[in-house]
Amino acid sequence: MRWLRRISLRLKFAALAIAYMAASAALSLLLRQWMAPWLAAVAAIALLLPLLAYHVRRAFAPMNSLFRALSGTVASYRDGDFSFGLSWHGNDELGELVDTHNQLGDALREQRLGLVQRELLLDTMVQNTPVAMLLLEPEGRVVFGNLSARKLLGEGRRLEGHDFQALLELAPASLRDAFARGGDALFAVGTEDDEELYHLARRSFRLNGRRHELLLLRQLTTELRRQEVQTWKKVIRVISHELNNSLAPIASLAHSGAELLRRGQPERLPEALATIEDRARHLESFIRGYARFAKLPSPRAEPHHWPRFIAQLRSQVEFVLEGEEHSSHARFDSAQLEQALLNLLKNAHESGSAPQEVKLALRRLPDAWRIDVLDRGSGMNEAVLSNALLPFYSTKRNGTGLGLALAREIAEAHGGRIALLNREGGGLCVSMVLPD
Question: Which CDD domains does this UniProt record tie to the protein (predicted)?
Answer without folding.
Answer: HATPase, HisKA
